[in-house]
């Protein structure tokens, strides 16, 4: 199982971190907003979503989910920070900061997945450019994929597992995600692929 460092413990990131942990992955959840990490460590969940509090508390109890204010070295980085937008523009400042915060711990062989919703070209032109200031190159040194979340409020825990996804990625060996079956969730399939250093999803 992989070590996942997930940035942004909000409406998308927290359920994702908890579900990955409950599926056996080691997850370090990171958030910069004051109080969130401390509250979560005490089992206080700030996101209202059916069953989420129980799942987060279970994930913390297993020891698979730990929490931090700063990114740690990992196999996979998932960025789930907010990208507020209107009809014409998306504010990518949070994504930029989160991406920059990975730089000190990014290493050869890692996989970075952008889970935030962003305009076309952002992963290749913004995230990749920032990550490559580390001196590492995609896809030779690290893999980069875009996997926007599409869950519906009220069904988040279920849809994280069941929704089919498309995962464009930086490697020629990585292909668009086919209908991947109801038992396979993208965090699991992406993480599973990390051992092969590719974002290509596993079929179910
Ligand atoms: N909420 C939804 O229903 C939904 C559905 C589909 C897609 N999305 C997309 O998912 C992404 C995340 O949305 P959300 O609703 O979870 O946002 P959110 O505001 O609930 O959570 C974002 C979290 O990221 C944290 N954060 C900001 N900068 C950070 C950094 N540098 N390092 C670590 N943490 C940082 C914030 O403190 C916050 O807790 C957005 O792009 C959104 O468009 C959201």
Hetero groups bound?
nicotinamide-adenine-dinucleotide
Distance between the termini: 17 Å
The total beta strand count reads 6
Topology-level CATH name:
Rossmann fold
In which order are the strands of the major sheet placed? 3-2-1-4-5-6
Secondary-structure element pattern, one letter each: EHEHHEEHEHEHH
Compute the CA-based radius of gyration.
16 Å
Counting DSSP H or I runs of 4 or more residues, the number of helices is 7
Strand content: 5-15%
Provide the structure class.
alpha/beta
Regarding CATH, which class?
Alpha Beta
The CATH architecture can be given as: 3-Layer(aba) Sandwich
Give the overall silhouette.
Answer: globular
Total domains: 1
Mean pLDDT: 84
Helical residue percent band: 25-40%
Largest sheet: 6 strands, parallel
Poorly predicted regions: 172-204
The CATH homologous superfamily name equals: NAD(P)-binding Rossmann-like Domain
Explain the layout of strands and helices.
Blueprint (H helix, E strand, L loop, with lengths): L2 E5 L5 H10 L3 E5 L5 H6 L10 H11 L2 E4 L7 E4 L13 H10 L8 E4 L7 H10 L11 E4 L9 H7 L23 H9 L10
Parallel strand pairs: 1-2, 1-4, 2-3, 4-5, 5-6
List keywords for this structure.
204 residues; alpha/beta; Rossmann fold; six-stranded parallel β-sheet; 7 helices; globular; disordered C terminus; binds nicotinamide-adenine-dinucleotide
Descriptive overview:
With 204 residues, the protein is an alpha/beta fold. The protein is 31% helix and 13% strand. The chain has a single domain (3-194), classed as 3-Layer(aba) Sandwich (Rossmann fold), CATH 3.40.50. It contains 7 helices and 6 strands; from the N terminus they run E-H-E-H-H-E-E-H-E-H-E-H-H. A 6-stranded parallel β-sheet has the order 3-2-1-4-5-6, sandwiched between helices. Helix 4 (93-102) links the parallel strand 4 (76-79) and strand 5. Helix 1 (13-22) crosses helix 3 (52-62) and helix 4 (93-102) packs parallel to helix 5 (122-131). The longest helix is centred in the first third of the chain and has 11 residues, at 52-62. The protein is globular and about 40 Å long. The chain starts with a strand and ends in a 10-residue tail after the last helix. Nicotinamide-adenine-dinucleotide (NAD) binds next to helix 4.
